[in-house]
Design goal:
Elements: H1 2-9, H2 36-46, H3 48-56, H4 60-67, E1 75-76, H5 77-83, H6 93-103, E2 110-111, H7 113-123, H8 141-148, H9 158-167, H10 174-184, H11 194-204, H12 207-213, H13 224-283, E3 286-290, H14 316-327, H15 329-353, H16 359-366, H17 374-379, E4 400-405, E5 409-414, E6 419-423, H18 448-454, H19 472-476, H20 480-494, H21 507-518, H22 521-530, H23 542-559, H24 562-580, H25 584-625, H26 627-642, E7 665-666, E8 683-688, E9 692-697, E10 702-706, H27 716-719, E11 727-732, E12 741-746, E13 750-755, E14 759-765, H28 776-779, E15 783-790, E16 799-804, E17 808-813, E18 818-822, E19 839-844, E20 856-861, E21 865-870, E22 872-878, E23 885-891, E24 894-898, H29 900-903, E25 907-912, E26 916-918, E27 924-926, E28 931-936, E29 940-945, E30 950-955, E31 969-975, E32 984-985, E33 991-994, E34 1020-1021, E35 1025-1026, E36 1029-1046, E37 1069-1074, H30 1084-1093, E38 1096-1100, E39 1106-1110, E40 1116-1124, E41 1127-1128, E42 1131-1132, E43 1134-1141, E44 1150-1155, E45 1160-1164, H31 1170-1183, H32 1185-1191, H33 1198-1204, H34 1208-1215, H35 1232-1239, ...
């Protein structure tokens, strides 16, 4: 009940309480329309579990964009940490911070997409790092150490050590913490390195818990020392893998930095190739589906390929990618926005370092003359916010010229006679009950009615590929995607983690995201090692090892059999269990059994690999060598099929041989298979009703198929006694075999056609008189099962046009008169105000207000409306100001009749449409244009102008009118902006200025819209000077189609002067288009510089009234300049600049369009000019040889391929400065392809030759240039200092004690008197050694100066010698004697790799702690020497009596 009330409250109600089409909201509040990305971000906060499945299908780049909340192209650490769980990466914050800090090159606290990829590379063992490292989700000692090492010195002081221990979760008292700190600080430096900290962690942590976190089966009864050794080994292995993974990540990062300049240039060249390929495909025809239908039946994905049984369409995925980038530009924006932001970050870093990484190449990329910026073009794409479908990618370049729309199926007809079909209603019920017949019978991809229309009744259930056993030959012929899926499936079954994909459409996503993570890296590596692989420590990614193991498993099953394969698997499990229990010798015994089984297999595998390599190489060479021959044979087969006028055997006829078989070709995966029709199967016209369709064969015979209810198929004579039987294939209408049909139209349940001679035939449902058979149908319910002749008027007029709607029909005679018949409800017949009568016979429309005797050219009947257009004629007229004749189109006026809910106003009689709109939301009013074709749909209508513009009006459900979906209703005919629109004079009233001004005739006279030019105040004028100029600033960048310069027309009053005295001053002159303002100086040098910097230019020398310049395609600029070539005054009547605002224009002129139920289909007809097709092919082929491989498969470009091949001739011509794109002018005029070939001419020449000497594709060149710059691996080597054990420390202390106390010494101790000791120590060396912390610099300097004094003599008298005392003095003044070790460099200087001290022996143990020194020495600085004091020299003070020393 609450739900119903909520639904009622959400209805859009008007002021009168009735439902309305106007959005109900506060007029003073601005409506907030959330983008798809913003909606997903809101959903993340409210329903995280639901979004996990959705994000799983997204790429890392898409996830990066989703979590980039400020859309800056950079993410902070918080955004990075929030994102990782959605990438299936569960790590601690400390580890996430470590990786983030490693990737943050500039230390800004944010990373771009390239740096983000480096972090993913380090964390992903499947396709990233090749060491199998996957970061754990718990805190490791390394995480805590690096998190607390704030100054990144590699050491922890006591406070940092305390925080790190607390962070890692070790609960211990402060006394114990301090005890272990001093215990493991082996060098007494007051600092701990990582290895000392790790030893403390192993000593203090819960070892069993740490092992269980690492999924180690811990025995119940085992010593703690053994557990600690196990944990230590695991930590060492984790650190080794992580160091190697980070080294690989740094290598990857370094490689990205090395190739960034090459990558920029290659991306420019690649986009140039994409642009040229799109233009070539556009020239061969396009089809656009606007809207998705009433139930989304027209929103199916495009076909996976357009392959026939004997021919594979190569690189079709590239065509689909290009089409998707066009109709859905947001993905292109997201992709290039990240690259743009990364490039800006790199430029900023280079600027800070004052380094330019691009050099001359970068300058050419930065300031190209031919501007191609995919990011800006995508930003200004007219497809934004529109609902344009992707499923017509397969029809791109197929030369489509007509389409038809039924209730759920679309049809397209090519000028080669092929009929394509796509769409189809999906089953509205999805659950299959246990007792349903659908448990054993396949119901098809679409409903039964759609199967009839699409010819799918005989389509069989595709086999379940997951249940098939794939042979080796079949596996080699698989696509890379299928080979990957098969490898994952086999290996997953081997490890018992396989699960069939729940949805075959998302099979690869399920395998990558669900199955592959279940396959453990270590298990796959161990399985390969048991089979003798990876013995040389090869480091491969998980996916590479899965492919190797798959090959081994298939070989085992093939050679040894299933039982032996299972035995090997069982032995492998036993070996793994034994190694876990440290039963190494027993594990080696089992390993030898596998080696015995694999001994013959290795030889077989080696032979097979060698044979396969040889076979693949031979096949590749043969394929490339015979490529031309194979293509020629395919071409011959196609030509032969096209020229086949009659079937060669009975297979070409229907079962009774009363008609030919006409195939339907699928354009989406749900359609029929792709075939190449024979010549005798070509069609001329196609039409579709609600559930049936008709086509006219080239012989004039009519074929129908679909639902046969009410006899709408006209099959009474064909089907015998059942005229309402359904037909699933195009079938000949035998009743019209002797009468060639020239036009056919289908209504909801009735059909009509015009035969040769202009006769009208109708059949099907006769309700409401829509077949025009007379009043008899009003008395009895009936239908016409055979085509029935209908008389038009008493004179039986000849008919040229016919249209059938839901409940009425309309015809146009050859004289241009309109006849209507059928139901008049809603005013659809236009009989007049309040007249809604039913007409049972064709009745002429007596008068149409405003028609003025014009002939009616076309008519269309919709569900409840009728639309007609008058005939278009060409008129020739002359203006008063100009005697030059001008041609223009007249007529083509549109009249409508019908109900208010479709037209926006009630039209009981035909009413002319006079107001047309343009712009993104229909806000700009334009003059009415001549209309050549009309189509009335279910709730909206479309018009096609003579210039090729498409106008829509009516209900915009699902965006079917070509406008953004928030606009629910379109009141006036509005142009669809992504298709063709007539260029406007964008220079009118814009800012203009000139070099000088004569007599106040400034530059504004040239942009005021007046072209007369007769008189002083009707043209601009400069003073006489050298190379004067006039420039127009458009205000923003635009695509300029043409520039028209109108000359002045006045004649000099002096008859002695020639008539062209004023007009000839304009010539010769240059017209230039530029991105930036031109130079303001007027001279020959500035003219030359302006010509060099112009995007495009043209020179005019002939004296004309109007000089017209058709600019090159996609000429983009903001400034237009006119500059004379010589010395004169510049006078211009008017400058007209026609173009489009922004960086893009419409995709093409519409030749045909039709409106269905909440869908519009528009056709851009192909270009038939051979010169244009040749130019498009040459440009596309020169930019990339792959484009030639794509275009040659289309019949529009077969002749061009025979002439130019894959571009070898074009590339040779470009070297001779004859490029077909840029013409090879100066350096600034080069296109992206020429810049690439010039910049990397030597590396490209050094590439290994392609097979057969063919020209290499751009992708091959790109891979070679990028991979050649890949740096070598620079592994992180951590020299581990040898730490003394506890016993070694005690031993060392004991030996030092023996040395100090002189115990067990054989040599007698020498004694000296206090006086002699003092005389031997004049500089208080003994005092300095002990109290070095209190010595100042002056005292040290004095000590150094006295080294050559009496100390040497005294030392000799003590028996020490000069060398010994010098050693004492040197060690005293050196850094080794300093006991202060607060700095972190002191420790590194005191240690070597073997952990031994480097303290001089002459100092003894003077660097031991202070308290120990006081115990061993008994005197101080203010105390006299006394008997028994031990001197640093090793002597002892004796009693005061003389002794010879």
């Amino acid at each position: 009940m609450e739900k119903d009330n909520a639904n009622k409250s959400n209805k859009l109600l008007g002021v009168d309480g009735k439902p309305t089409n106007t959005r109900h909201r506060n007029l003073f509040e601005e409506e907030v329309i959330l983008t798809e990305k913003q909606k997903m971000r809101q959903e993340l906060e409210t329903n995280k579990d639901k979004m996990m499945d959705l994000i799983k299908a997204m790429s890392p780049v898409d996830i990066f964009l989703l979590f980039d909340e400020d859309d800056s192209g950079l993410i902070s650490f918080e955004e990075f940490r929030k994102m990782l769980p959605f990438l299936n990466i569960h790590i601690s914050d400390a580890k996430a911070y470590r990786y983030f800090r490693m990737c943050d090159t500039d230390g800004s606290g944010e990373i771009d997409i390239d740096e983000f990829k480096v972090a993913l590379f380090a964390c992903d063992p499947t396709s990233g790092n090749p060491v199998g490292f996957h970061p754990s989700n718990f805190i490791t000692p390394m995480d805590a150490f690096e998190m607390m090492d704030e100054d990144h010195s590699g050491f922890l002081d006591e406070d940092e050590y305390r925080y790190a221990t607390e962070y890692i979760g070790v609960e211990i008292t402060d006394e114990k913490l301090e005890k272990y700190f001093h215990k493991y600080d082996y060098n007494y430096a007051g600092l701990l390195d990582y290895f000392e900290f790790r030893d403390i962690f192993i000593e203090l942590c819960d070892v069993r818990k740490q092992l269980e976190l690492r999924k180690v089966d811990v025995p119940s009864f085992v010593r703690k020392k053994t557990l600690r050794l196990m944990l230590r080994d695991l930590l060492v292995e984790e650190e080794r893998k992580e160091r190697r993974a980070l080294a690989e990540a740094r290598r990857y990062k370094k490689w990205i930095l090395n190739i960034r300049d090459s990558k920029k240039l290659l991306q420019k060249a690649e986009f140039r190739a994409y642009q040229e390929l799109k233009q070539a495909l556009d020239a061969a025809g396009q089809v656009y589906v606007i809207g998705s239908g009433s139930n989304g039946q027209f929103s199916s994905p495009p076909a996976a390929g357009m392959d026939t049984k004997d021919f594979k369409f190569e690189f079709f995925d590239r065509v689909v990618e290009l089409w998707k980038d066009r109709v859905q530009p947001q993905q292109l924006i997201d992709r290039y926005k990240l690259e743009r932001k990364a490039a800006e970050q790199e430029d900023k870093r280079d600027a800070e370092r004052n380094v330019s990484g691009l050099g001359a190449i970068g300058q050419m990329i930065k300031d190209p003359k031919i501007v191609i910026d995919p990011y800006l073009q995508a930003l200004e794409s007219p497809f934004h916010g529109l609902n344009v479908q992707m499923n017509t990618a397969g029809l791109w370049g197929r030369r489509i010229y007509q389409v038809a729309v039924s209730e759920g199926v679309l049809f397209a007809l090519a000028d080669t006679g092929e009929v394509f079909t796509w769409g189809g209603h999906s089953h509205w019920w999805h659950e299959i009950q246990p007792d349903s017949v659908q448990q054993t019978h396949w119901r098809g991809d679409v409903t039964a009615r759609s199967q009839l229309l699409m010819g799918l009744k005989d389509k069989q259930l595709p086999p379940d590929s997951s249940l098939d056993i794939i042979s080796e030959d079949d596996f080699s012929r698989m696509s890379p995607e299928n080979r990957k899926a098969e490898s994952i499936k086999v290996v997953a079954k081997y490890f018992n983690v396989w699960q069939p994909p729940p949805n075959l459409a998302q099979r690869m996503l399920f395998l990558d995201k669900d199955i592959l993570p279940r396959i453990l890296y270590d298990e796959v590596r161990f399985a390969l090692q048991c089979r003798g692989k990876l013995k040389h420590n090869e480091e491969l990614t998980k996916m590479q090892m899965v492919e190797l193991l798959h090959a081994d498993i298939e070989l085992e099953k093939k050679v040894l059999g299933e039982r032996a394969h299972k035995a090997i698997k069982e032995i492998e499990s036993q070996i793994m269990a034994l190694l876990k229990r440290r039963k190494v010798k027993l594990a080696e015994k089992f390993q030898r059994r596998i080696d015995e089984l694999w001994a013959p297999l290795r030889e077989v595998q080696a032979e097979e690999q060698a044979a396969k390599l040889s076979r693949d190489l031979a096949h590749s060479n043969e394929l490339h060598k015979n490529d031309t021959t194979s293509y020629s044979e395919w071409r011959k087969r196609v030509v032969a099929k096209r020229e086949e006028a009659i079937p060669e055997d009975a297979d070409g006829f229907t079962p009774r041989q009363q008609g030919v078989k006409i195939p339907l070709i699928g354009a989406t995966p749900r359609g029929p298979e792709v075939v190449t029709p024979r010549g005798y199967q070509s069609a001329l016209q196609i039409s579709a009703g609600s559930a049936h369709a008709c086509l006219i064969h080239k012989s004039g015979q009519l074929y129908t198929w679909g639902v046969g209810g009410a006899g709408r198929l006209g099959m009474d004579l064909t089907r015998g006694a059942d005229p309402e039987k359904d037909v699933d294939k195009p079938t000949l209408v035998q009743a019209l075999m002797q009468r060639p049909v020239v036009r056919v139209a289908c209504g909801y349940s009735h059909t009509g056609c015009i035969v040769a001679g202009g006769e009208l035939y109708m059949w099907g449902s006769t309700s409401n008189g829509k077949c025009g058979l007379g009043p008899i149908v009003n008395r009895e319910e009936c239908f016409a099962s055979v085509p029935t002749r209908v008389m038009v008027g008493a004179e039986d007029r000849r008919i040229k046009k016919l249209s059938c709607g839901a409940m009425h029909s309309a015809i146009i005679t050859e004289a241009g008169q309109l006849y209507l018949f059928g139901c008049g409800d809603g005013g659809r017949l236009g009989l007049g105000e309040g007249r809604y009568d039913t007409l049972f016979t064709p009745t002429p429309v007596s008068s149409i207000p405003g028609l003025n005797g014009e002939k009616i050219a076309t008519v269309s009947c919709g569900n409840s409306t009728t639309i007609l257009a008058t005939e278009i004629i060409r008129e020739v007229g002359a203006s008063e100001e100009d005697v030059q004749k001008q041609r223009h189109l007249a007529g083509g006026r549109v009249f409508v009749a019908g109900s208010r809910n479709v037209l926006g106003k009630q039209c009981d009689s035909f009413t002319q449409l006079t107001e047309f709109r343009s712009g993104s939301n229909g806000s700009e009013s334009i003059a009415a244009v001549p209309i050549k074709q009309v189509s009335a749909g279910y709730m909206h209508s479309v018009l096609v102008s003579a210039e090729g513009e498409l106008f829509c009006f009516g209900h915009n459900k699902g965006g079917c009118c070509g406008l953004p979906t928030p606009q629910l209703f379109v009141e006036h005919p509005t142009s669809v902006r992504f298709l063709y629109s007539s260029p406007t004079n964008i220079g009118l009233g814009r800012k203009a200025y000139q070099s000088t001004t004569f007599n106040q005739r400034n530059a504004s006279f040239a942009v005021n819209g007046r072209i007369e030019g007769n008189g002083v105040n009707k043209s601009s004028c400069t003073q006489q000077e050298s190379q004067p100029w006039l420039e127009v600033d458009l205000g923003r960048t635009a695509v300029i189609e043409s520039v028209i310069v109108w000359n002045r027309t006045d004649i000099p009053q002096d008859k002695n002067l020639p008539r062209d005295h004023y007009t000839s001053r304009l010539f010769p002159f240059w017209v230039m288009i530029g991105k930036d303002p031109f130079q303001q100086i007027a001279n020959a040098v500035s003219l030359k510089e302006n010509l060099r910097s112009a995007v495009c230019k043209a020179r005019f020398a002939d004296d004309k009234r109007a000089s017209t310049w058709r600019c090159p395609a996609q000429s983009q600029g903001r400034y237009v300049r006119i500059q004379l070539e010589g010395y004169n005054s510049l006078s211009i009547a008017e400058i007209e600049i026609y173009g489009y605002w922004g960086l893009t224009k419409g995709v093409g002129r519409v030749s045909y369009a039709t409106a269905g139920r909440d869908v519009t289909v528009a056709v851009v007809r192909p270009n038939n000019d051979p010169k244009d097709l040749e130019s498009f092919y040459k440009r596309a082929t020169y930019s990339d040889a792959m484009n030639a491989d794509i275009l040659r498969q289309l019949e529009s470009f077969t002749a061009e391929y025979d002439k130019f091949g894959r571009g070898e001739v074009l590339q040779e011509a470009a070297r001779k400065k004859a490029c077909c794109i840029c013409g090879r002018g100066n350096l600034q005029d080069l296109c992206e392809a020429c810049i690439l070939y010039n910049s990397y001419s030597q590396p490209i020449a050094a590439m290994p030759p392609a097979v057969g000497g063919r020209r290499r594709r751009l992708r091959s060149i790109s891979d070679f240039l990028l991979l050649s710059n890949k740096p070598d691996l620079d592994p992180i080597v951590v020299p581990q200092v040898k730490r003394p054990s506890k016993w070694e420390v005690r031993k060392k202390n004991f030996l030092e004690m023996l040395k100090v106390t002189n115990l067990f010494r054989v040599k007698r101790t020498g004694y000296v008197s206090p006086k002699e000791a003092l005389s031997a120590d004049p500089a208080a060396i003994m005092e300095t050694l002990k109290y070095v912390d209190h010595i100042d610099e002056k005292k040290m300097e004095t000590l150094m100066n006295d080294r050559t004094g009496g100390g040497s003599v005294a030392g000799s008298s003590l028996g020490l010698g000069d060398a010994s005392l010098a050693g004492v003095l040197n060690s005293t003044s050196g850094p080794a004697a300093v006991t202060e070790r607060k700095g972190k460099n002191m420790k590194m200087a005191e240690e070597t790799d073997d952990g031994q001290s480097v303290i001089p022996e002459s100092i003894g143990d003077s660097v031991v702690p202070l308290e120990r020194q006081q115990k061993r020495h008994g005197y101080g600085p203010n105390e006299p020497l006394k008997e028994g004091d031990l001197l640093p020299t090793g002597h002892v003070v004796k009693p005061a009596f003389p002794k010879s020393i």
